[in-house]
Amino acid sequence: MKSWIFWACTFATACLGMYDNSIKFQVGQKFQIILSSVPTVPANPATRIIPSDAQVFDIDAFEAEPTTIAKLQAQGKIVLCYFSAGTYEEWRPDKAQFQAADKGPVLPEWKGEQWLKLTSQNVRSIMATRVQMCATKGCDAIDPDNTDGYNNPEGMQTVSRQEAIDYIKWLSGVVTANNMTMGLKNSQGIIDDVKDVVTFAVNEQCAYFSECYLYDNFLASGKPVYHIEYPDLPPNSTVRTHDCEPTPSILPSGLSTVMKSKDLDGRVYYCDGSFVTTNTKPGDPNVPPPHPKSTVRPSSTRTSSTYSSTQRPTSTKGTSTRSSTTTRPPSSSTTRIPSTTQTFSTRTTSTAAPSQSGNPNGFGLHMQIFERLLFPMSMMRSRFLFVFTGMVGKVIAFGEGVRMRAQNENDTFAFP
Q: What is the pLDDT of residues 58-97, one digit of tens each?
């Protein structure tokens, strides 16, 4: 093959290969999550957003701006776009599209939010539109909240466990069709059933509720878990040890842990004791500030004896009372009361070896950096590749035609 054809094909293959999500998500990646405002990204890529070493940013899908997403990606960041996939929120711009039959019970202490019936075709149509919105804005992946309604007490359930599994698989198909990938938010009770259709997980307070061991197999498969705890801030060394230090059968290694305010603003604490604040600007003034749907943590002055009471058996999970997942509630200062009881089955021992994909020192990272620099506007990538690939094919065909005519006519024209 002539050299120019070789390089054209190589370039086209490399461009197509840059969209393999397996080279992006890695166990232990540092991340930041901001839902109460919009990150302010410097216009000059040489000026790094803080924290500069956070590889993943999780931001609100509705308030995310395409320019913000593109600037984050230009700095090599992976952008997760958050929306509630399992509840109706009266402050969202598409609220009028939900029908009365789609809605279930109101979330306790969460005025303006109701559980959704995930088998509803109308609900699925709305969620598919939200996914398309994220794709248009250029998001890399989706962080879909509130998919664990099957854990609600009797009388509060709008979805069964199997229906939740089916819904996650359906939603993942929609996300994949839109050239993105998807994670699992909490919902540890179905993680083994859907692990093949999600690329990462986002968890709230598994250390506090002694549930982190449920991610052992997931982490061993090479998929990251972005883990959020809500201690009193700033967290003291005892809290950091409890929330961060790997412990066999309790807290697995490899979690991507942050300690955040319940407002989920720009402040973030990490396990190494570091603290930074990401610059942000106000979002939509009509959207209330977020609060996690989780039990409020006791004072961060807990003693070691308090921690020892959270030790779980290695084979079975005790029942813990908690509520579901992170979202934007109405602007009430009332602390949410836990309303969900979760019971998990016997733990399965992992024998899976960590995935070798996504080597941070390998070709994948170099191509990812090249991708971010060459195509900062993510929403145009697929269209560019489609057009580019077609052009390469036409150039190759034209070149071959010229070469053959030159040979037939004993032309003196030569290719380089």
A: 999 999 999 999 999 999 999 999 999 999 999 999 999 9
In terms of domains, do 113 and 215 share one?
yes
CB burial readout 192-204, b (16+ within 10 A) else e: ebbeebbbbbbbb
Q: Are residues 410 and 315 in the same domain?
A: no
Among all chains, which residue has been given the structure tokens 């879909």? 144
**What one-letter code names the amino acid at 146?**
N
Q: Are 143 and 264 in contact (CB under 8 A)?
A: no
Rounded to an integer, what distance in angstroms lies between the CA atom of residue 218 and that of residue 213? Answer: 10
Domain hosting residue 313, numbered range:
25-357
Q: Are residues 263 and 319 in the same domain?
A: yes
Is pTM beyond 0.90 here?
A: no
Three-class SS of 20-74: CHHHCCCCCCCEEEECCEEECCCCCCCCCCCCCCCCEEEEECCCCCHHHHHHHHH
Tokens matching residue 374: 């060459």
Could you give the CA distance from residue 215 to residue 188 in angstroms, rounded to a whole number?
Answer: 8
Largest Cα–Cα distance of the chain, in whole Å? 90
Domain count, the chain: 2
| Amino acid at residue number 374 | L
Residues 70, 185 within the same domain: yes
Residues 53 and 178 occupy one common structural domain: yes
Shared-domain flag, residues 237 and 385: no
